[in-house]
Design brief:
There is one protein chain. Helices cover 12% and strands 53% of the residues. It contains 4 helices and 28 strands. It has helices spanning 3-27, 31-39, 217-221, 318-326; strands spanning 45-46, 52-53, 57-62, 65-67, 74-79, 82-103, 108-109, 111-116, 123-135, 139-143, 146-151, 157-161, 170-177, 188-203, 208-215, 223-233, 243-247, 250-255, 261-267, 275-282, 291-304, 311-316, 331-337, 344-350, 353-359, 363-367, 375-383, 387-396. The strands form 6 sheets. Strands 5, 6, 7, 9, 12, 14, 16, 19 and 21 form a 9-stranded antiparallel beta sheet that branches. Strands 3, 4, 23, 26 and 28 form a 5-stranded antiparallel beta sheet that branches. It has a 4-stranded antiparallel beta sheet with strand order 8-13-10-11, with no helix packed on it.
Length: 397
């Protein structure tokens, strides 16, 4: 390598070192000075007296985005009253208005009555009931191919108890009449009306109830404590079981409550979400019986943190402050918002002095010259409604 190429390499290395030092210097500058240097925002102009004057300088540039408004730190979500209960009552499982059966040497007529039982576990005391309009011979009844009745009937109203062990999900009753024997000239026949299969059905569908309540994103973002509260009406003489309460599928309460008393249960606010939240109450009464819980004055109480609104700072040198007091320079605050026409309201505190922001425009400009002081200055924004700010800028101009 000749001397000329060596000197060229050394020169390139020296340039690279100098550039690296310049970049490090820029990185460690204060933001306002760095922006002024990079964007050439300080313009030196020759004054009439031969001196120089400063152009517009950015003293502060921030991007706050959303400032959330909290009119209070306590919120209550009301939930309508409802009852959980179990109730047993007589129900018609199947009904047929008329049935006719016959038996003779020349013709036989039977009748099939099909009936389902949708909830066999919670059904009991099955019976067959009908009125007798005409009777000749023995009436025979089969339940699922098992003969359960074979008798000549004399009374006008008949009740036949059905053994629950013979009952299935799908069932068949077959009505027929006994043979006439050697009396070929006669006919045995029965005419029945208002034929019903009855059972005691226990309704367990009301042992649970689910409802929803809404929580805003502002409430979620500032949530500190959460409590569920409700009043319980019940009869302690009845067969009661534990009451369980879940929020968003998280169990928050599982106890036998006191009848005629309030339940107040604090729970982890982390299980709540922004938007729709579900709340479920359920129990399991011992049955068959009649029992209930009536739940009134239901509330989900939210306690929010005290809002901490940001404070922004900028410095003002003695030289620049003097020019502001002389009236030759001004300090301007500019805010750029996300939308036009929407109302934007806030309280501004400039070095502790209160002033206001109230506009529907996309940009807000305010002269802060009467509020500033030498050296350190502070701006605090306390919104009167949710406020979305794209840029917050303070300039010396």
């Amino acid at each position: 390598m000749n001397k000329k190429s060596q000197s060229g390499s050394k020169a390139a290395m020296l340039v690279a070192i100098i550039m690296g030092l310049i970049i490090l210097y820029i990185l460690f500058l204060p933001p306002s000075e760095r922006e002024r240097l990079l964007y050439n925002q300080t313009v030196n102009e020759t004054s009439e007296t031969g001196g120089t004057t400063e152009g517009n300088i950015t003293l502060l540039l921030e991007h706050p985005m959303l400032l959330e408004y909290l009119p209070t730190t306590e919120y209550e979500k009301s939930i309508p009253s409802f009852s959980l209960y179990i109730k047993t009552g007589s129900a018609v499982v199947k009904k047929q208005d008329f049935i006719t059966v016959k038996n003779s040497w020349f013709a036989t007529q039977t009748y099939e009555m099909i009936f389902p039982v949708s909830d066999l576990k919670n059904s009991d005391n099955f019976m067959l009931n009908f009125n007798l309009d005409k009777a000749q011979g023995n009436l025979m009844v089969k339940l699922n191919d098992k003969l359960i009745y074979d008798k000549e009937i004399k009374e006008a109203n008949v009740v036949i108890n059905l053994d629950k062990s013979d009952i299935k999900d799908q069932n068949k009753l077959v009505f027929s009449v006994s043979s006439v024997g050697i009396k070929f000239w006669s006919t045995n026949a029965y005419e029945l009306s208002n034929v019903q299969v009855l059972a005691d059905i226990t309704d367990i569908t009301k042992q649970a109830s689910k409802t929803n309540f809404i929580i805003s994103s502002t409430e979620i973002n500032n949530l500190d404590q959460s409590t569920a509260r409700f009043y319980v009406s019940c009869d302690k003489k009845l067969e009661l079981d534990k009451l369980e309460v879940s929020i968003n599928n998280h169990l928050i309460y599982s106890q036998l409550p006191l009848c005629g008393d309030y339940v107040q249960q604090e729970f982890d606010p982390a299980i709540l979400i922004s938007g729709e939240n579900s709340m479920e109450f359920r129990t399991k009464f011992a049955g068959p019986t009649t029992a209930y819980y009536t739940l009134d004055n239901l509330l989900v109480k939210l306690k929010l943190k005290e809002p901490v609104y940001p404070t922004y700072y900028f410095d003002l040198s003695s030289k620049r402050f003097d020019k502001i007091t002389q009236g030759t320079k001004k300090i301007k605050l500019r805010m750029l918002f996300t939308d036009d026409f929407e109302s934007k309201r806030a309280e501004l505190r400039i070095n502790g002095i209160k002033t206001s922001l109230d506009t529907t425009k996309k940009e807000f400009i305010k002269d802060l010259s009467d509020f500033v002081k030498q050296d350190n200055n502070a701006i605090k924004i306390i919104p009167s409604a949710n406020l979305e700010i794209i840029d917050l800028k303070v300039t010396y101009e």
